[in-house]
Amino acid sequence: MVVIVGAGPAGLATSACLNLLCIPNVVLEREDCSASLRKKRSYDRLKLHLAKRFCQLPHMPFPSDAPTFMPRNGFIEYLDNYASHFSVDPLYNRVVESASFEEHSGKWLVIAKHMLSNGVEEYVGRFLVVATGENSEGYVPEIMGLDRGRSCILINMRVAKSCGRDVLVVGCGNSGMEIAYDLSNWGARASIVARNPVHVLTKEMVQLGMTLLKYIPVDFVDYIVLMLSKWNHGHLCEYGLRRPTKRPFYLKKETGRSPTIDVRMMGKIKAGQIQVLPSIEKVTGGRFEFQNRKVNQFDVVVFATGYKSPVRKWLKDGTSLFNEDGMPKKRTPDHWKGENGLYCAGFARGGLLGILNDAKNIADDICKVLAEKGD
Ligand SMILES: Cc1cc2nc3c(=O)[nH]c(=O)nc-3n(C[C@H](O)[C@H](O)[C@H](O)COP(=O)(O)OP(=O)(O)OC[C@H]3O[C@@H](n4cnc5c(N)ncnc54)[C@H](O)[C@@H]3O)c2cc1C
Ligand SMILES: NC(=O)C1=CN([C@@H]2O[C@H](COP(=O)(O)OP(=O)(O)OC[C@H]3O[C@@H](n4cnc5c(N)ncnc54)[C@H](OP(=O)(O)O)[C@@H]3O)[C@@H](O)[C@H]2O)C=CC1
Ligand SMILES: O=C(O)C(=O)Cc1c[nH]c2ccccc12
């Protein structure tokens, strides 16, 4: 038996690949649905920002008439069809609270709390696949002087419409940029904190880069993509943004940090409709002081400061695979396999393309282990 924790794209894909190999598995999901990140924790306008051919799961391409950049509902429909087609049937409302390896039996003991009955359930498996996602828990940094009770604080994707209000978005990753764009469109006076240098590319540049990477080295791809970005967006420093010294696809490969993909956000920044601010130095009585000595007050603060992976809170014997941050110790492509039948899917920092590779690798490896054991 294989126990899979998480029914997002990674858990669904891993279960589908195991089903195709007739290897019994169970998928445990804390929410009442699969793909909860998109169904319950993202905004309506969200689209896949990679071309669909880089976002499909194993053994099921997107429909040929599907748009290149899949809208949220279209991707949800794809995931639901995927689960149904490969007979993936997660057990919902199961929050995995503990997983430990039992030396005497050579098996994993997984304890899950049933959220509807409040009962505690035990699942035993020779193999354990962690598919709880890189984006499992919102991260909000401590900021000196910020009274979380006073200003309305919204985390990550849950953003209220703030027409006519002064809103600060902290974080200029893809979430921060998209949320600031939406807030500005809804009539808010939006500002965004860009603490460190950031690459800004268009979806088409990323699509070109990912296509070229199959044929030419990353340095050359980055040279082309950066030239296009500078031609298209100009000198970002005029708008308070800086480009990193290291190039975008190199950074994605080495650090997992994605470039920010411009959803017409740069147009608003260039038009002065969105103000870019440096790091927050401190907050005093609701007044924000920034690194450039600017001082502003805001009605709403949105933290788009990324996510954490709390795997180590419940995975007791995961040190062969995960570091303290709940991310793999090993670099891609060797990141997905630990000891004693422990695996992780969806932690390659490679998005859905990374998930496709993880799911196939894990299912094939389990099949090989079982064959070697004569099971
Ligand atoms: C807003 C956003 C947009 C993205 N867009 C793209 C994109 O366009 N293209 C791309 O390639 N990548 C994209 N990514 C990155 C990544 O590919 C996606 O997040 C993808 O959904 C990851 O799938 P996953 O299954 O690894 O994790 P998730 O989708 O996060 O699923 C993990 C599942 O595990 C469950 N879970 C967590 N902890 C437990 C527990 N203890 N017990 C039981 N269940 C648990 C969660 O409820 C969740 O359903 C995006 C990420 C985000 C946040
Ligand atoms: N398909 C789509 O349209 C979308 C995809 N995504 C994906 O979701 C994933 C998560 O993205 P996202 O939510 O943006 O998270 P990220 O981790 O990508 O970005 C977090 C941002 O917050 C900043 N930050 C963190 N701490 C602080 C702080 N104390 N002060 C100021 N800034 C801070 C980081 O800056 P620093 O660089 O200095 O650490 C970074 O800019 C990514 O893979 C992304 O590509 C997200 C939204 C939309
Ligand atoms: O959305 C993300 O962060 C992803 O990880 C998707 C992704 C995989 N490879 C990339 C290369 C450049 C930009 C985004 C991605």
Automatic annotation (TrEMBL):
Keywords: Auxin biosynthesis, FAD, Flavoprotein, NADP, Oxidoreductase. Its cofactor is FAD. Its EC number is 1.14.13.168. It holds the Pfam family Pyr_redox_3. The keyword Flavoprotein applies. Pathway: Plant hormone metabolism; auxin biosynthesis. This is indole-3-pyruvate monooxygenase. GO terms for molecular function: flavin adenine dinucleotide binding; indole-3-pyruvate monooxygenase activity. Belongs to the FMO family. It is an enzyme of class 1 (oxidoreductase). Transmembrane segments: none annotated. Signal peptide: none annotated. It catalyses: indole-3-pyruvate + NADPH + O2 + H(+) = (indol-3-yl)acetate + CO2 + NADP(+) + H2O. The keyword Flavoprotein applies. GO terms for biological process: auxin biosynthetic process.
